[in-house]
Amino acid sequence: MTKSNLRFDAVNAVIDRQIDTSSHLPEGKVTEYFGSNVFDLEKMKDFLSDDVYDDVEIAIKTGSKMDRSIADHVAAAMKAWAMSKGATHYTHWFQPLTGATAEKHDSFFTLSKGKSVESFGGGELVQQEPDASSFPSGGLRSTFEARGYTAWDPTSPAFIMEQGGGKTLCIPTIFVSYTGDALDYKAPLLKSLNAIEEAAIGVMHYFDKNVTRVTGTLGWEQEYFVVDEALYTARPDLQLTGRTLFGNAPAKGQQLDDHYFGAIPERTYNFMRDFETEAHKLGIPVTTRHNEVAPAQFECAPIFEEINIAVDHNQLLQDVMERVARRHKLRVLLHEKPYAGINGSGKHNNWSLGTDTGVNLLSPGKTPKQNLRFLTFFINTIKACHDNADLLRSTIATAGNDFRLGANEAPPAIFSVFIGTLLESVLEKVRNGVESHMDLTEEFKAEFKIDIHNAIPDLMKDNTDRNRTSPFAFTGNKFEFRAVGSTANCAHPMIVMNTIVANQLNEFKANVDARVKNGEKKDGAILRELTECIKASKDVLFGGDGYGDAWVKEAQKRGLSNVKDTARALNFFKEDRFIKLFEKTGVYSQREIHARHEISLENYIMKVQIESKIAEELALTHVVPAAMKYQGELAQNMANMAAIGVLDAASQTKKELVESISKHINEVVVGTELLKVNSQAAAEESDIEKQAVMYCDNVRAQMEVIRTSVDALETLIDDKSWPLPKYRELLFVR
Question: What is the pLDDT of residues 642-683, one digit of tens each?
């Protein structure tokens, strides 16, 4: 099979593909099999004695340490349950700093005194030493000091992963070095959750002394593309980078908005039902599915969960989606920007705080006291964002997200907070000294009057409209971090969010307590401190069009950063003020921060390196040969026509076409040589920060120059001669 006909073989494979529309999914209600592969408290009750179960429940629900002897009982119960489900192996499932998940399987089977037995004890449950020395560590450990430990996280339930006919017990764990440094996302996430809980409880006791726990909640929204595996395989750039490095925009893209919220294509619908079933068995409460804006783009979202579990579930779901897609001869594209000129994919992180008494701390109340509580947490969150806007910008900085931010489909690189006109007026009243015991009930009860037909009911009107151009928007009872990229591990932005709000709440409480100590009444002290917070954070509030040039100029006047590329934005993370913040809250040490900064830069550099090599290969081995072949055919045709004395208008057109093709071929060849030079120069730079900037400014920029010429050639060359599946096929052939 030649390279030149791979494209049409792929298209024909899609057209001829027989789609299995029969259902292989469980019958009955989702509630009948939801969580069937999860070792949750309900199942523990069946496998543990009452006393042990009570101890485990208390440890999980309160976050208290679990006695090692209890772990032996849990391990025995976990093994019995897993083996009853057909599991033969177990693994400590963790989240290294690659962004993916990791696992090393061990069998329950072993030999004891010459006899075969099934064994799994508390020691194996609580701690393992997978080594895992090849994962990025940012200098936290050397190859000759390779010990790495995984430790059980009891707050996230174990689960069984079904794959191929085999079943494996997966135990969520943290991953740390021999010196105790965090080498993953979960360990610092748990520390940040502890920090926000302690800080929030302290402030919450101003309003309710009965609160003993405050939990961070997360509802993520996962956007993704799907493409047939044959078309995917025929595009080396998709296979190795997750995005198309070349590709001319099709005549029809997303401009008609006819895909958005449209009827889900049957093949994709079957895939969705399949991965949703797998997700439900794993306890992932996915409830929403729909077509997104771009052709072949979709979204799913779950019910809100505690942040730690929500992060685990999102990482797990991405694995499930990719695995199930293969069963349907599809590939899932999670890259933020698989196609140029087509909307990219994000992962909106909806963040809030809830108490063990059932109160959402970011939900307006029905009494003045409840509204003071709401304003306290609402305003402190805004103040935290204002003071740490650059840090939040660094959390969304990735090689893929650079193509998406500010591209009229996602928020800009300027960090701002949107709260809507109603809440802006409320903050203005507070700032101007209106008493704290205000009743917001009526403001939050506005209705739409629908004058269409008596049968159409009046609709409850949200207190504010949505602003899709805002990177961080308040949406009624939560903040939506809209700028997070689709491939991101939610833990990173959530770690930072928890940390900065925890720090702000601690400072707020210290200031309020000082006021009270000096004789002010509590509510008055809270109100006056909130007034100071409002005055200090007003610059970060913005309710207009984040895509407009006017906002760029206005943001500059306000002193807000506008760093558009990852190579530079990542440097915010290691600024001294943020290092002190992380150390003060106990979330990261200075060593861990510098390690993560280095790992992020290395990840960016390596991704651009891979892209540049693939771009070079495609340009020289796919595009240029096809263009030269067609150019030769045109030239031969012209020579043949001239030989028989036929010269007409078409001859002049052909001549101009040959010249144009020749021009673009030369640009591709010369551009590729310059790409090699720029790549080599960047690779030889020893300073990693300068190296990242060189890959951004010189290598990626040169790739875009080459792309312009390649995409131009796609419009000039005979369709049957073009070797790579085109956008119209990738997006519309299903």
Answer: 788 776 767 778 888 999 999 999 999 999 999 999 999 999
93 and 147, same domain (yes or no): yes
What is the helix, strand, coil percentage profile of the chain, to 5? 50, 15, 35
DSSP symbol at 10: H
Report d(CA 91, CA 177) in Å as an integer: 18
**Contact of 653 with 634, CB cutoff 8 Å:** no
Does 456 map to a domain? yes
- What one-letter code names the amino acid at 490? C
Can you say how many angstroms the Cα of residue 530 is from the centroid of all Cα atoms in its chain?
32
Number of domains in the chain: 3
In terms of domains, do 341 and 484 share one? Answer: yes
Please list the residues that pair with 333 across neighbouring strands: 225
Residue 442's pLDDT band, with cuts at 50, 70 and 90, is: low
Distance CA(572)–CA(579), nearest Å, equals 10
Rounded to whole angstroms, how far apart are CA atoms 653 and 641?
A: 13
Supply the pLDDT for residue 449: 47
Which residue range is the domain that position 682 belongs to?
604-732
Tokens of 9: 């073989």
Task: Please provide the average confidence, as pLDDT, over all residues in the chain.
Answer: 90
Residue 96 Cα distances to 123, 182, 312, 395, 586, angstroms: 22, 9, 12, 16, 20
CA 99: distance to chain centroid?
A: 10
Is 0.90 surpassed by the pTM of this model?
yes
User: Residue 514: CB partners within 8 Å, gap ≥ 6?
Assistant: none
Q: How far apart are CA 341 and CA 255, in angstroms?
A: 11
Question: Of the candidates 87, 163, 94, which has an alpha carbon nearest to the alpha carbon of residue 326?
Answer: 163
Query: How far apart, in whole angstroms, are the C-alpha atoms of residue 55 and residue 438?
Result: 44
490 closest CA partner among 108, 218, 165: 218
Least Cα distance to 14 among 268, 241, 283, 227 occurs for 227
Q: Are residues 569 and 632 in the same domain?
A: no
Alpha helices in 420-548 (DSSP H): 420-431, 491-517, 522-537
Select from 119, 150, 184 the last residue of a domain. 184
Instruction: Spell out the residues 6+ positions from residue 214 whose beta carbon is closer than 8 angstroms to its own.
Output: 196, 197, 200, 201, 204, 353, 354, 355, 356, 361
Evaluate if residue 15 carries a pLDDT over 80: yes
